[in-house]
């Protein structure tokens, strides 16, 4: 039985929709799934580890990677750079690992142009009121920041129709099941199965 390539997924969502919790829960269940670790020029926040949460690099190092066409996508946000490494993604996919990119709709647009086979998933909250409640319950942001996140959420959600799949994270277990179903459906695609079961298929079709 041959090893099929992994599948590339993009997950996007407004802040507070529960995207990170869903990804973490999925990865706890499956060792052959990974979240891509992005490169960034911003400083590490308390508790963040290099190579785990981000690859922390200097602006010069980041720009050198840009010049070498080393990113699937990259963006500059508030004078800091963020990017997704081509080499890292390709290595994991070649090893049969499903890779998740946690990026916004703009990054998703860039990657779709380069990787037409990518599956894109948008995670939506069940309502504006619930989203605001979740942001408040975090206890991390001021009222001004929360208002800004709510406005940004509406802008981000306006691009939901650019994605292949839409999951409404109302009940967490249901949303997790739906996400898992999308991943396993991709694994069962004929192109993947034909590689995985090449010997079997050759035998079944032999004279």
Can you walk me through this structure?
With 207 residues, the chain is α/β, with parallel strands linked by helices. The protein contains nine helices and nine strands. The strands form two sheets. A five-stranded parallel beta sheet has the order 2-7-1-8-9, with helices on both faces. A hairpin with a 2-residue loop joins strand 5 and strand 6. Helix 1 crosses helix 7. The protein starts with 7 loop residues before the first strand and ends with a helix. The mean pLDDT is 92.
Report the order of strands and helices.
Answer: EHEEEHEEHEHEHHEHHH
Low-pLDDT runs: none
State mean pLDDT (0 to 100 scale).
92
Strand order of the largest sheet: 2-7-1-8-9
What class would the helix/strand composition place it in? alpha/beta
**Envelope shape:** globular
Count the strands? 9
Instruction: Give the C-alpha Rg.
Output: 19 Å
Oligomer: single chain
User: Helix content range of the residues, please?
Assistant: 40-55%
What is the number of helical segments per DSSP (H or I, 4+ residues)?
A: 9
Beta percentage is 15-25%
The major sheet is characterized as: 5 strands, parallel
Terminus-to-terminus distance: 20 Å
List the helices and strands and how they pair.
Blueprint: E1 8-12, H1 19-29, E2 33-35, E3 39-40, E4 55-56, H2 59-67, E5 71-77, E6 80-85, H3 86-94, E7 98-102, H4 105-114, E8 119-124, H5 128-138, H6 143-157, E9 165-168, H7 172-187, H8 190-196, H9 198-204
Parallel strand pairs: 1-7, 1-8, 2-7, 3-4, 8-9
Antiparallel strand pairs: 3-6, 5-6
Helix pairs in contact: 1-7
């Amino acid at each position: 039985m041959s090893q099929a390539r992994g599948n590339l997924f993009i997950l996007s969502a407004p802040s507070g929709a529960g995207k990170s919790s869903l990804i973490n829960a999925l990865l706890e269940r499956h060792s052959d799934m990974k979240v891509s670790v992005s490169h960034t020029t911003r400083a590490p926040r308390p508790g963040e580890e290099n190579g785990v949460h981000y690859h922390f690099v200097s602006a010069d190092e980041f720009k050198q990677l840009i010049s070498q066409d080393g990113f699937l996508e990259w963006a500059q946000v508030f004078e800091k750079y963020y990017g997704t490494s081509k080499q890292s993604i390709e290595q994991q996919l070649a090893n049969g690992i499903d890779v998740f990119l946690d990026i916004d709709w703009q990054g998703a647009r860039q990657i779709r142009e380069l990787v037409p086979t990518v599956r894109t998933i948008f995670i939506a909250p069940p309502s504006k009121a619930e989203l605001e409640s979740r942001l408040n319950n975090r206890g991390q942001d001021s009222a001004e920041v929360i208002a800004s996140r709510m406005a940004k959420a509406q802008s981000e959600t306006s691009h939901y129709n650019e994605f292949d799949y839409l999951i409404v994270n109302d009940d967490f277990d249901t949303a997790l099941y739906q996400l898992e179903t999308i991943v396993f459906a991709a694994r069962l695609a004929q192109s993947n199965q034909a590689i995985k079961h090449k010997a079997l298929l050759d035998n079944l079709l032999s004279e």
